Amino acid sequence: MPAPARAGLTAVSESVAESVSSPKLRIVHTEASCGWGGQEIRILSEAAGFLRRGHGVHLLCPPQAHIYDEARRRGLPVTALPIARKSLRGLLAMHRWLRANPVDIVNTHSSTDAWLVAISALMLRRPPPMVRTRHISAPVPGNSATRWLYTRATRHIVTTGERLRETLVHENGFPAERITSIPTGIDTEKFVPGDKAAARRQLRLPLDVPIIGIIATLRSWKGHRYLIEAMAPLRHKNMQLVIVGDGPQRGAIQSQVNELNLNNQVILAGNQPDVLPWLQALDIFVLPSYANEGVPQAVLQAMACGLPVVTTPVGSIGEAVKDEDTGLVVQSHCTSCLSAAIERLMSSPDLRQKLGTAAIQFVQANFGINRMLDRMEAVFQENRALP
Q: Other C-beta atoms within 10 Å of 138: how many?
């Protein structure tokens, strides 16, 4: 069983200076999910970032997972294991891999792989410390088994937002000193404002109409249905809605578009390997989530591109989008609120400019990818396996 956490984290400002002389880490990420979204993208971004810094990094995931193919495409070290669900086969595969490959830290990302790593560790003579990243704001069960997983089997917990951290401390009673909030960072050199007309020509989008957009996995809690409903009363404004992403709700979304006769106004673009031109083509970005959010990468990317953002106060979104400052925050599940916010922005170019400029400055100051890597590196170094 992993040893208790060592007290306190090195300050980020000190960790940057120390990273040059700190020993290189052998890091393994585990991900049981077969889905695709911000969680999986963060794992790959972290892995690539730590490889650039000279650390050893490896990913363990199911062979059928999207992240497996994407990791291989990006040239990241990855091994397929049967860990999509809790099973004896998956447990034995995890145990064999960890026994044969000594590492300094295991960073787990979903419930299933966290359990498989934790139980495998019980069978190892020198188990690697486990850091558990919580990407979403869904409640953590309060049963004794889950408490053991988070407080005994896990050396340290990372959340993707401060509000998520506070929930684990105040509602679950987990030790505050063993939880660190580290929001996802984005590449602020890549995500910048661009030539809107050129982006629209590249994507074959209309040049002369307002375009609203959302980039998100098509899951129910992302709130696509409310955004589509919000477009109906704006029909006379000749606006278009672009939905980038794919997922289990695609059929339901297409049916809703058909029922509301919005086929001429809504474009389902599917998954896109590069979302930058899609962001640069938009006038407004909307994410009407009602659950399960940290600080969404798509929101940060949109803000970095200078887009005015309309979103909801869910999870840790409010740590990036400040109402009337870096965006507009509306009530979740509220179609009329979305319609009103969109119409307000479209009628006020000055407000769009003000919010977009403030958003760029805020993201560049607080959500760069190197800031995320610095802070994750400090957590890993502080909790790594002792020599």
A: 15
